[in-house]
Amino acid sequence: MTITQTYRDGELVETVNHGGSENQVLSAADEGINRPHRNAQTAEVFPAVEPARASRDISYDTNPPKATIDFETRSACSIKDCGSWRYSLDPTTQVMCLAFRLPHWEKDRTALWHPAFPHLGVKEADCPELEELFAWIAEGKLVEAHNAWFERGIWTNICVPKLGWPEVGHRQWRCSAAKAAAHSLPRSLDGCTLALDLRTKKDVEGAKVMKKMAKPRKPRVAEVKSFVAQQDGVPAIKQCVVTTVATDTGWKASVSWDGGERDFSLPFYWHESVEMIERLCAYCRKDVLAEEAVSHRLRDLSAKETEMYLMDQAINQRGFQLDREGIEAALEVVNGIFSDLNKELVELTGGRVEKATQRARMIQWFNEMGLPLEDTQGSTLDGWLKREDLEADVRRGLELVRALGRSSTAKFVAAENWASPGAW
Fold this sequence. Notes:
Elements: E1 3-8, E2 11-17, E3 24-25, H1 28-31, E4 37-38, E5 45-46, E6 66-74, H2 79-82, H3 84-89, E7 94-101, E8 111-113, H4 129-138, E9 142-145, H5 148-163, E10 173-175, H6 176-182, H7 189-195, H8 204-213, E11 216-217, H9 221-229, E12 240-246, E13 251-257, E14 260-266, E15 269-270, H10 274-297, H11 303-318, H12 324-348, H13 359-368, H14 378-385, H15 392-404, H16 410-418
Parallel strand pairs: 6-9, 9-10
Antiparallel strand pairs: 1-2, 2-3, 4-5, 6-7, 7-8, 11-15, 12-13, 13-14
Helix pairs in contact: 8-10, 12-15, 12-16, 14-15
């Protein structure tokens, strides 16, 4: 038997039994609820006297208990370009805080740990609840996060080897984002809480602080001067010209002054303050509550789906082998060809377009050449190249943009970015 329940404005207004030979609408008495009723004379609908239980309050007690965790981190590594596992292995990646909650705690209670920030006068958080979390893990109980692949990488590659925390077993991990996807809901925490109309939602303003703190910033001129003044063999400098370039290990600063110039290797600088750290920690705590609310609102994955999820995580963690020398050789060839093609493009357009990625300039050039090009997508370019009435310069321009924009060559760059540092 299948029963469909219809909610309107958070209230149950109709229950349909799809069993038997035909559908049957259950009465209010059958369901034990007060439904809206219609006045026969005025045909006006009046609201129920006692509203039914709102859908946002539904939870599934059959779900096994789980600890909910959430990390906030910062790194010079781009998680978008390199993926979260490579991100967790990067030497510049740091844990800024961990918020967590155990299922038997009283409602809305969370715990938080963060490392010391001595340059800001912030000591390591006193978090005795960590031992309770470690005991939970040691007993083999479940640990859940939203997009748990990220938390799994940070825990496995930073917290275990660098902080001495216990390992979380492969079969202990669960992901509330995977549950959301299985229910055809948005995978993002913000989108999922909104779709489910939960009372606990993601802290949107706190997310802005998190994103600002997650990436290194450019050093200020005063900071460069202060760093230079502490180096040996550098005279007292009153005025100087500073040029900074980002590197894999920090910043390269070229400093020139009256009578000399020199390059310096500077560390990374971050957006940080005591107030920002406090705001970040509050944001992390609220995320844990929102993640738990999503998990409680949804049934867990079926046994088969759970095995599929765990297999997927095992495959991702194991990875696959790459031919490093082959990829580097391919990139060398591709970069050489792209360099030659871009030079030809500059000559063809009279210097107006320096590379094919300058799409707005490229489209403008085509339009001025009499070709009403709307975009530079592959299918659009291929359509125009089928024509036989194109001028030679226009055809060559289309060919150059098509060759320089092929996504197949980008896979070599992606492979290089995603490879584990120790294996590359």
